[in-house]
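Quick question, first post here. What does this chain look like in 3D?
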Amino acid sequence: MTSRTQILTAARRLIDQSGWEKLTIRRLAAEIGIGATTLYHHVRDKEDLLFLLIHEYADQIPIPELPSEPRDRMIAAATAIHDALAAWPWAAEVLTTDGFISRLSNSALQLVEAIVGGAVDHGCTPEQAVHIFRSIWYYTVGEILVRAHSSGQRTDDERAADLDAFIEGLDSARLPHLSALGRRWPALAAQDTYPLALSAFVDGLLAQATSATPRTPSR
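> Answer (accepted):
Ran it through. Tokens below.
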């Protein structure tokens, strides 16, 4: 008998070894020692398998105690999403597909609810709240994927050579600020600015949304 736990454990092992892109139902079946047809009795396809993995992972992540203040609640929930996906960046890649939210488990949806509900409680319309969540989601996933794709892609020597070529090619007359930054750019770009930028981003989104929301005159 092949259990779901056995399947997901083997899938995680293959992803850790070769990346999620190279995971196939046939390769997973061979890893477990069963036929692909047998495995299809447990999972519909590769996408189904990946979401089963994400569900299991999300269920293991403790939901943080969220603040009562709507704006702070949104930031705390977005940070929890960021930190969870940063540990599993391949999951962020899978979740870039359209309609991903309908495939999430209740554990993951609690954080989505916190962001959308926080926006509504702050004074946004439900439509604005969805747009705000989408903007925060795009920023969060983009930040994770850029860092994941940048990490380990090139050796230190290759990065140094690229930096030398970059600096030598700068026209200080046309690009004075980039020229002044020069060799400081990699260290500055590597700094974790997500928390600070998220706060500013959320504040800006909420201010923009609520300023456009008609308010009932007070009596």
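The mean pLDDT is 90.
Residues 49 and 105 are 14 Å apart (CA to CA).
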